[in-house]
Amino acid sequence: MAKATRKKAQPEPDLIDHPRLTQNLVGHTNAEETLLRGFNSGKLPHAWMLTGPKGIGKATLAYRFARFLMNQINEGEGSSLFGDSTPPTTLDIGIDNPVAKRIAAGAHGDLVTLELSPDEKGKMRTTIPVDEVRKIVNFSHKTSIEGGWRIVIVDAVEEMNTNAANALLKVLEEPPEKTVLLLISHLPGQILQTIHSRCCHLPLTALNEDTVITLLKNKVPELSDGDVTQLAKLSEGSIGKALDLWKSGGLDLYREMISLLSTLPNLDMVKLYSFADKLSSSDPLAFKTGMELYLWWLARLTKTAGQGILPDLVIPEEQTLISALIERHGLAQWLGLWEKCSKNYARATRANLDKKQVVVTTLTELQSLAS
């Protein structure tokens, strides 16, 4: 099977601009309309929680709304001399708008953003510390620099440590005047219920497959139609995930994994160790990408065992493989394997275990159940 075409001569640039640079948003018309209705009502909630899968446009929507609100000082907050202005019908303010340019440059004094950042040694943090949240507290005590709205964007809320989450809660309990907090969450179940209760919830759904395909073709025009379709299926409605998989070689890893698993119940040892070598290579993303793709596939197998309905196949060869495996065992056994493999992967990541051995052990456990 042909490999997905990827540029390897030079480091690949980010295929998705930072959300503060992204003007257009597709697939979330209803969410935009909800925010517009809130603004046009004159009683805009002070805190919104934007939830949904990662990579579908939540942060892009947050910055889009921030630009809209900050531009209202130039629009007279929807009022006119005779009080008969037409309420705005779009969040778009145009790429050449001075507000949009300042936000794109990270130079708007009435916007504060919190996200994962490097520590003093240059290593990317795994949580947002309380010191970062104190920026919001200080920000909330100041008056607006431009006399309009002040915006806080947190991306993502579940990445805050416990102290940071408690500090955010205090801001939510005593919301500053004319300040809007836009809280982004990929995993809302991990967030304190007290934070949930003080937010207006705006769930965003995954993009449909056709939308992901269109976006992929625009971003990576050299991809074949087959690669685009398979990446879209693997992405589960997330253009961010689709592009990450392309950049990390995830599609090729998935194809190789299915080729390997198709040798069950007696795994081809040459293919197994070749696959394990690739996942334990110097590429820091290979292990993460390969193991997460395996767990995703195993979760789909488990769901199929429970429902008896084959999933939408990424690769045609999967049908024979999945059908054969669910004939051998039922839901309980496959769910047990998925739980065990998930825990082992999490432990391997935390403890920095030998990656090659983790891959071999994980797949031989599947072989044992399939035999």
Please tag this protein with its features:
P-loop_NTPase, five-stranded parallel sheet, 371 residues, 16 helices, 5 strands, AAA+ ATPase domain-containing protein, Rossmann fold, alpha/beta, 2 domains, DNA_Rep/Repair_Clamp_Loader, elongated
Explain what you see:
The chain is an alpha/beta fold and 371 residues long. It has two domains: 19-203, P-loop containing nucleotide triphosphate hydrolases (Rossmann fold, 3-Layer(aba) Sandwich); 248-370. It is built from 16 helices and five strands. It has helices spanning 29-40, 58-70, 72-75, 98-104, 130-140, 162-173, 193-196, 209-219, 225-235, 239-247, 250-261, 269-279, 284-307, 318-328, 331-351, 355-370, and strands at 47-51, 111-115, 150-155, 179-185, 200-203. Strands 2-3-4-1-5 form a five-stranded parallel beta sheet, sandwiched between helices. Helix 5 (130-140) links the parallel strand 2 (111-115) and strand 3 (150-155). The radius of gyration is 24 Å and the shape is elongated. The two termini are 27 Å apart. Residues 7-13 have low confidence and may be disordered.
